[in-house]
Amino acid sequence: MRVALFATCLVDTVAPQVAMATARLLERLGHEVVVPPGQACCGQMHVNTGYRREAVPIVANHVRAFAGAEVVVSPSGSCVASIHHQQAMVLRRAGEEGLAAEAEALAERTHELSQFLVDVLGVTDVGAYYPHRVTYHPTCHSLRLLRVGDRPLQLLRAVRGLDLVELPAAEQCCGFGGTFSIKNSDTSTAMLTDKMANVLSTHAEVCTAGDASCLMHIGGGLSRLRSGTRTVHLAEILASTEDAVSPQQTTRPAVSA
């Protein structure tokens, strides 16, 4: 299958290793991965903060960038949720009926990584090896909008060497919420404090999730505590093999100048 990778602007800028891990994983499973050069932001940040008019050209660019894709896969439940639930609405309200129809068709071909692996490919064991104690945080958009359910957990349980421990109060938000963490920083910090306490109670070496944005938030807090617990994206774990180097810590990616 020829898979178009939607990296997302946050991953491209802050955690490029997540996109690279997604590509390695899909290629290892026998698929051709292409990265459409015109891709940028999906427009979620603008829509969520009330800038719907300004989001129109951004959403239109996304639809056009992936117009010829057979299937689109992204390592972000949040961005895929925006593609499924916001893009066509934004274009239709702007009077772009033709593009709105294209956006709806594109949404049907767009999948979050764990959904693509489990539902489309019918795979849970991807041949990964990751000898660490890991806990999983289900991010809000993947949980409540995309309803990925236990698909990430199915994938993690099949990883050789991985010790999966349940996260207490797993379904509680980590407090990121995009611009919410800036506009409501005190509330966000309080929510993060609760999430970190639950993560640390598991004595896990690694906290994983399907969204780099939430991992950036949680990982930043854990690093300030000098807890020793790292955040690693689900894609990085699934891309790991016995002869591969362990994934880098998501909270402190190397970003070239």
UniProtKB/TrEMBL annotation:
Residues 3-83, 134-218 form the Cysteine-rich domain. Pfam families: CCG. GO terms for cellular component: cytosol. GO terms for molecular function: oxidoreductase activity. This is L-lactate dehydrogenase complex protein LldE. It comes from Geodermatophilus africanus.
